[in-house]
Amino acid sequence: GHDVWAEIAVLLASISYAFASIFGRSFSSNPPMVTAAGQVTASGIVMAPLAIIIDDPLAKAAPGADAWGAALCLAVISTALAYSLYFSILKRSGATNIVLVTFLNAPSAVLLGSIVLGESVTAIAFAGLGAIGVGLALIDGRLLPALGLVRGKSG
Questions:
Q1: What is the Cα–Cα distance from 136 to 130, expressed in whole angstroms?
Q2: What's the DSSP call for residue 25?
Q3: Spatial separation of the C-alpha atoms in residues 101 and 136, rounded to whole Å
Q4: How is residue 7 annotated by DSSP?
Q5: In this structure, is the dihedral angle defined by the CA atoms of residues 131, 134, 138 and 139, taken in order, positive or negative?
């Protein structure tokens, strides 16, 4: 009840991610690096004026070399390389398969929470991770034929 706007934001983010994957297919004729560069450039053009208006960077001290280095690493590795890989996989595997990577968010969060923050992993978390694993195995389509529960596509 109290966090309705946060819950709506999470739902809208998920829907947006799904639509973005489907929309991204329309760029499959372009090389992945070109699509990634276009996406990052367009978002920079949209975000730069907002950052200037909201954050007023000209009124603050100039960032140091360490901040510029961190920003460069984020731009090149975490953004440009990641989006290039994303559009490569999208081109090869399709929109449905590319969104399956979101299933890795929960296990990553549980693992990092445990290692970095010292959080305990509960039985419910293990059950949830198991459900994710079963879901991925069922989506893959190879588990049930391997167990002899259904006939595979070739048989």
A1: 10
A2: G
A3: 10
A4: H
A5: positive
Query: What pTM value is reported for the model?
Result: 0.59
What is the distance between the alpha carbons of residues 154 and 152, in angstroms, rounded to a whole number? 5
Mapped to the 3 state alphabet, what secondary structure does 36-52 carry? HHHHHHHHHHHHHHHHH
Q: Alpha-carbon distance 102 to 96, whole Å?
A: 11
Q: How far apart are CA 88 and CA 82, in angstroms?
A: 10
Pair of tokens at residue 131:
């459900």
For 9, the token pair is 């934001």
Mean pLDDT of the 83-100 span? 81
Q: Which residues contact 114 (CB under 8 A, 6 or more apart)?
A: 120, 121
Q: What would the pLDDT profile of 123-146 be if each residue is shown by its tens digit?
A: 998 999 899 888 888 877 777 788
Residue 93 phi, psi (nearest 5): -105, -20
Spatial CB neighbours of 17, under 8 Å, sequence gap ≥ 6: 99, 102
Cα(84)–Cα(92) distance, integer angstroms: 12
The label of the residue with tokens 């390389």 reads 81
